[in-house]
Amino acid sequence: MTTPELDPRLIEDSYPLQQHLGFEMTAWQPDFARIEVPLTAFLMNRQGLPHGGVHATLLDSAMGFAGCYTGDPDRRQMALTLSLTVNYLAQASGNRLIAEGWRTGGGQKTYFAEGKVSDDAGTIIATATGVFRYRRME
To answer: What is the pTM of this model?
Structure first.
């Protein structure tokens, strides 16, 4: 799947958790989002591996963004996670985690998404499915 260059006008201001973890959105289009984070010491668990909560956060974020693309920086869409299931498959061996999310279906109030986290060496680290509810923007 080829993704077009990310329009910088669509990137929202980063929020405190994003700033703390250091992840950035690198692709966003209808039904798809990609976020990436460099592996740094504070993301590791006591075994020296990326903490599973980091994988879950990246998956939740990528899948959440995947369902909220509008293409219009003045018309933001938000969603809340109703359900998130993460499956851990392998250990990261690269220097960067890459989370991708796809909106797979849904309707006006809720949507379904799938996601995966890989490292920059190409190893799939974790997969996820989720259910999200759109928030009314007033």
So the answer is: 0.89
